[in-house]
Design brief:
450 residues, alpha/beta, 10-stranded mixed beta sheet, 18% strand
Length: 450
């Protein structure tokens, strides 16, 4: 097997810097370009895991992952709902750039991820074997479907959320154009982990990228019979504990194959919790615009010998950062001719107290800028109230010190007019840059006479 490329050697030097700065014991460079596994939960709450101060749901395997790797406390999904968040994660771009910022794709939709977008899977090929196991929700008709058109060698999963109809479990890959079978909701999580581990078996001789895009704990809640009725948090807790057990099985499988030290595993969620689940101390939930409860999610990363055990960071990051970060880990260049919004989080994940590469993050609600987050401050521009989409600037500025007040309960605008001026300037620049890219804004522009 070929040795690491030059970019990969730079990654190993970053790990060596982490050894010096963070006290990482027993550092040894990976033997090859790493396997990469991203486990994406669906509607998991920030406060659902023990490592994020959850108390009711038992997540021992994910808590062990946090102890053996890195835990980011101020990590965001790029949207407060599913489709745009997944588009941003896979492309490293705010979803308004891809035409997928508005709402989620419905069964009768013809929208999808444009063919010209470069996904993590496409950027890792041809050196990497790639698979998407689980939920796609980025277009289920031509030319957006199946995911094998977007860089994945193998797809085994659902076209969209499992509460949508008609629903089928599809397979596409080498020698299989597209097949469909019926769905057993109570066994989806088990089947996704089983197929993911089988993919690792099939491709263990070369680097692989596996995205396990789970349907849990999105409703309806259908725990496997082996997990049903066990959690103190009832059905919601059952399905989260089943996800945790699946992660435990995955790590055990990697150790059995001798791939544990060669594999970077990332765990996160596509947005905040919906009708159940805990947002922890954060305000609001999935779909709530502006407030952190809909956007801020867990991020755990484990790569023995590179990521220091027990690293915790409050540096701000977002799921759009996964593309540049994973490419850096793999020693692969960034896509050319692509405007990326994500930044490489290698330093944050390998060096204690490393600053965020972002000056600020932009939070969108559909195609409108809803908030701006810097490392310390949060400026909220939009919210929902009794069915109304409310521009909050007309009612006074809303400024929160997230480091002291993560619940966004106390407006400090009157005490920090200089910060308000800076944050409103950032907001206006983001609005001017991004909102004209939205499909609604483009549709409102009169056609130029010929």
């Amino acid at each position: 097997m070929p040795g690491p490329s030059r970019p990969h050697r730079r990654q190993l030097l970053a790990g060596a810097a982490a050894l010096a700065a963070g006290g990482l014991a027993g550092f040894s460079p990976p033997r090859r370009a790493p396997n990469i596994v991203v486990v994406l939960a669906d509607d998991l709450g920030y406060g659902d895991l023990g490592s994020y101060d959850g108390r009711l749901i038992r997540t021992p395997h994910l808590d062990r992952m946090a102890r053996e790797g890195a835990r980011l406390t101020d990590f965001y999904a790029c949207a407060n709902i599913c489709t745009p968040s997944r588009a941003g994660l896979l492309t490293g771009r705010y979803p308004i750039r891809t035409g997928l910022a508005h709402e989620v794709i419905q069964p009768n939709d013809s929208r999808g991820l444009p063919a010209g977008e470069v996904t993590i899977a496409e950027a890792l090929r041809p050196e990497y074997a790639t698979a998407l196991i689980g939920k796609w929700h980025l277009g289920h008709v031509e030319p957006h479907w199946p995911p094998t058109k977007h860089g994945f060698d193998l797809f085994f999963g659902l076209p969209y959320s499992h509460d949508m109809k008609p629903l089928g479990l599809f397979t596409a890959g080498p020698g299989v154009e597209l097949t469909r079978e019926d769905v057993d909701p109570a066994r989806l999580t088990q089947r996704f982990f089983d197929r993911g581990m089988a993919f690792v078996d099939e491709q263990k001789a070369r680097p692989l990228f596996l995205m396990l895009a789970l349907t849990a704990p999105h409703i309806p809640l259908d725990p496997h019979p082996d997990h049903a009725g066990r959690s103190p948090a009832a059905a919601y807790g059952d399905v989260v504990e089943e996800v945790d057990a699946g992660v435990g099985r995955l790590f055990a499988h990697l150790r059995k194959l001798g791939l544990d030290r060669d594999t970077l595993v990332v765990f996160t969620s596509d947005n905040g919790p919906w009708f159940e689940g805990s947002a922890g101390p954060l305000r609001d939930r999935k779909g709530g615009q502006g407030w952190d409860g809909g956007y801020r999610v867990p991020l755990l990363a484990r790569w023995p010998g590179v990521i220091p055990a027990g690293l915790a960071s409050d540096a701000i990051g977002m799921n759009i950062d996964l593309l540049p970060t994973l490419l850096a880990a793999a020693g692969k260049p960034l896509p050319t001719g692509v405007e990326l919004d994500g930044r490489d989080l290698t330093a944050v994940l390998t060096r204690r107290r490393a600053p965020s590469p972002h000056e600020h993050l932009v939070l969108f609600n559909n195609e409108q800028v809803a908030a701006i987050r810097t490392q310390r401050w949060k400026y909220v521009a939009r919210a929902y109230y009794r069915g109304f989409n409310v521009p909050l600037g007309s009612r006074g500025d809303l400024l929160f010190d997230i480091s002291a007040d993560p619940s966004e309960a106390y407006n400090l605008a009157s005490a920090h007019p200089d910060v308000v001026a800076d944050m409103t300037a950032r907001l206006k620049r983001a609005q001017a840059l991004f909102e004209p890219m939205g499909l609604a804004a483009k549709a409102a522009v009169p056609a130029t006479p010929k």
